[in-house]
Amino acid sequence: MEIARVRQQVRRFYDGGVPGRDQQPGLPPDPGQDPRIVLERHTESGLESFSMERRIAYDDRHLGELLVPADPDAFRTDLTSVPALFTWLVPKTGAHLPAALLHDGLVQDPDEAASYVSTLGHRVDRVEADRIFRDAMADTGTGVVRRWIVWSAVTLATLVLGRDLPWAAATTWRYRGAVALTVLGIVVLGYSAIADLFDLAWPATFELPWMGERPWWLEVVGGFAGAVTIPVALGLLWGRFRMAGAIVGVLLAVLLPVTLGLAAIAGSYLAVERASARWPMVTAGIAALAVAVAIAVTLALSV
Predict the structure, then answer these.
(1) Could you tell me if 143 and 76 lie in one domain?
(2) What is the pLDDT of residues 227-267, one digit of tens each?
């Protein structure tokens, strides 16, 4: 995949107006006005989503004017679709929000009505929607690192889900195989790398030649080098999406220990939250006991 430098052009985003409804005239897009993001919050079964009271307009470099949503009454968005564990890296809102809302409108299942309007009559498949997302983030001033990370993440979802793609099913399965091999290889190697670094006798591990029996700091350096080299090589299996494969692979390899730690913390929090709701007195007693033990250990070790 070619990497083209996209120069920021903030005026590509503008107010998309309001479509007419109930025989009432709407407001047309106005390229002279900044985009107005007006959201209404909805909750259903504990899940949060938002509708857009006004359209957002974007003048794409290849497809021209795109308006989102097509029908404000039928459109729902969760803002930037990021797993909770990774909101520290890519927050739900920020400079990239207009691009995220645009992408939500452009992405759809084949059996769904289009949630965007192309003034020039173009149909946007999912791969093209991801490309537009990346370019649009550049126009909002999103940093180059973040926008390539986000593009790689949505490309991963596109290849795995395999919906609304401009190629045959066999090609979709080839991409899925490349994704699976990349993730499996990095997880297996990462598992052995962690065991090697901490000299742990975990089952089904093997010694990595770039780490081995060396001083700990050399093992860290070797582990980091391997966490970059191996994913970049595996990313070549992704063909035209090799840049996304390399970025996803490196992030997975480098952030695997961090992600496991965050997952453990998040899991513990959810367990405590549910326990406190179900057995409040028991949870309070356990918390008091834990505090008492912590105080006793602190005093004992301080003597």
Answers:
(1) yes
(2) 999 999 999 999 999 999 999 999 999 887 787 788 888 88
Whether 5 maps to a domain, the answer reads no
Alpha-carbon gap, residue 124 to 112, rounded angstroms: 13
**C-alpha torsion 261→153→161→73, nearest 10:** 110
Cα angle, residue 191 at apex, residues 186 and 196 outer, rounded to 5° = 120
pLDDT value of position 256: 76
Is the pLDDT score of 4 beyond 70? no
Q: What is the pTM of this model?
A: 0.86
69 and 153 share one domain: yes
Could you say which of 161, 190, 208 is where a domain stops?
161
Q: Which domain holds residue 117?
A: 10-161
pLDDT band at residue 212, thresholds of 50, 70 and 90? confident
Residues 71 and 200 in one domain: no
Do both 71 and 181 map to the same domain? no
- What's the domain count of the chain? 3
* Token pair listed for 127: 């791969």
pLDDT of 3 > 70? The answer is no
